[in-house]
Amino acid sequence: MPTINDVAEAAGVSASTVSYVLSGKRSISAATRARVERAIEQLGYRPHAGARALASSRTNVLALMVPLRQSADVNVIMDFVGAVATRARRHDHDVLLLTQDETTGLERVTGGSLVDALIVMDIELDDPRVDVLARLGRPTVLIGVPRDPRGLSCVDFDFGGAVGTAVEHLAALGHRGIGFVGSSPDAVARRAGYAVRVRDGFRAAVAAAGVAGAMSPVEASLPGARAALAAVRAEVPDLTGLVVHNEGALPSVLAVLAEEGTRVPQDVSVVSIEAADASQHLPGRPTSIDLPSLEVGTAAVDMVMARLEGSVAPETRLVPATLTDRGTTAPPRRGGRAGTRRVSPSRRR
Amino acid sequence: MPTINDVAEAAGVSASTVSYVLSGKRSISAATRARVERAIEQLGYRPHAGARALASSRTNVLALMVPLRQSADVNVIMDFVGAVATRARRHDHDVLLLTQDETTGLERVTGGSLVDALIVMDIELDDPRVDVLARLGRPTVLIGVPRDPRGLSCVDFDFGGAVGTAVEHLAALGHRGIGFVGSSPDAVARRAGYAVRVRDGFRAAVAAAGVAGAMSPVEASLPGARAALAAVRAEVPDLTGLVVHNEGALPSVLAVLAEEGTRVPQDVSVVSIEAADASQHLPGRPTSIDLPSLEVGTAAVDMVMARLEGSVAPETRLVPATLTDRGTTAPPRRGGRAGTRRVSPSRRR
DNA sequence: CTGAAAGCGCTAACAC
DNA sequence: GTGTTAGCGCTTTCAG
């Protein structure tokens, strides 16, 4: 591998000039620059990352801590990881992968000066890693909003806004009784982060729209779906709108409606809150609020880079979701010829 | 951050002694070692990765190139990535993430001495990256076996063995007519790597068992499944055994059998070849040959490390799959009380 | 607009 | 068993 000195010699300049050509940190005459660039080209020169890191205290690598086991939706994670990797390259950075189960990973890579920024996924409401990260004092972005971010920046889906949009959409169509079936009880218990925001968002939206609302968790199974539907209907008897925030349980919910003979959207309108990108093109999906995993990943990188470049204030950014109408919502009851498509009962995911 | 000199001073030794305590590359008296270790502990010392890389030409980082877009099974990829990351740590290495779409990534990270070994997923039969990798001259392991590995090591599932095991299992039960429905036509066309091995494996196994066999590709849809079944039955009229190598199409195949009134396993025995770990615990899965993504990831790391440590010969390792009986195979026709469970028609995945 | 030179923190001969 | 020292390849003052 050629070194910066080889390049300097080939170009007939000093090593520092080559360095400055590369970094652009001082002005270089066009002629010199051309000679240097040509030498770099010819020799196939690449700066040695370690040497550069040693001299500059910048590694141009950012760490991404990913939940690998058991975790929620693999598609979302992959989309997200892809977005981070892609965006990081645009900031001239590479991505070092850290896994959840290696608890000391964060200390190791920062202490060892392997990376100069951190993005940590899947932050829970009282995540113990937040303390660690705050102590490390590196530019950090949390995916998910903990109770106390301790001066760190956060990004997440705007769950509150998403459920609000869903409710508003249904209310605008004329629905007066709206049910929400959400995460499994365990999920809620485990990392109530978004669950809280969803709950508050639903309550606020229902109140603002002046409609009746009821919430229930739901397990991803037919009995689970039956129970959840029964629960919200018990509370709101004239329920005609349904917001589902549980991709796993969605098929069961639709299957239960079908087996009851409840037509969608003629009898009940359905809006699903789910990850964008994942299985985006599958036929037969309901109207949905799409959570933009890609945009969250991109935002996370931009935010962490901003802090690296010296931006001072930590920020919390909630990326809005948008509604995609796929014909599973319509005005309630006798509302003329309502939606177009109807949900086929035996659909699979 | 404390440096090695701080540690040396605190311990009352020279910097090189600290270095040798850390590397174990020469013997140190117990007393000295204890003092050094205590100083390291107290100061919270971590060697600077860049400095170490510069001095030793070893980064302790390996690059993993992952297919991010469109790719086959996300679950498999995640399992695999997890296995690589975990195993790499046991070799005291970290993992740098490279994505498929950044074509120059491999040159960049090797040229820049960012990593000292490479694992590249999703290698196709005539993958252009193989040439590049061979030229780079770093320890490399390919996931997937190209037509010409050009001196690089490869790991992959033993697809040939997997289909062989499936056929043998069915033949041993007494089946004399066995069908194989496999990847979608496009997949086969695109990266015929494993498709070829599957085909040859099936042919060989069928011949060895002395039974009749027929193969067909299959699309992941009900019409696709019908067509594939018709195709293999046309060739083997008394077909009683079915091997499915297409996780996406499996539900459709089972649904078609159910709608025909064909009982599993009484009328037809079914074996699926699919990724292990992914949705391992879902109920209602058929007897399967499980492709061990986790083991392939682990093997990939071990192999690349072996080459880093100086092992000379490149090797190609095919990780065997094992059969898990879930009661969807039984002796054909009047064969007494056959399998136990039966496949429910409306199952989802 | 360009060079010379002093490190960055560590490893690995080379000494004893 | 331990210390001394010369780099590894780059960035960045300091000088001109």
UniProtKB/TrEMBL annotation, chains A, B:
Keywords: DNA-binding, Transcription, Transcription regulation
Superkingdom of the organism of origin: Bacteria
CDD domains: HTH_LacI
Gene3D superfamilies: 3.40.50.2300, lambda repressor-like DNA-binding domains (1.10.260.40)
InterPro entries to which the protein is assigned, alphabetical: Cro/C1-type_HTH, HTH_LacI, LacI/GalR-like_sensor, Lambda_DNA-bd_dom_sf, Peripla_BP_I
Residue ranges constituting the HTH lacI-type domain according to the UniProt record: 2-56
Positions of transmembrane segments: none
The protein's name: LacI family DNA-binding transcriptional regulator
Organism whose genome encodes this protein: Kineococcus glutinatus
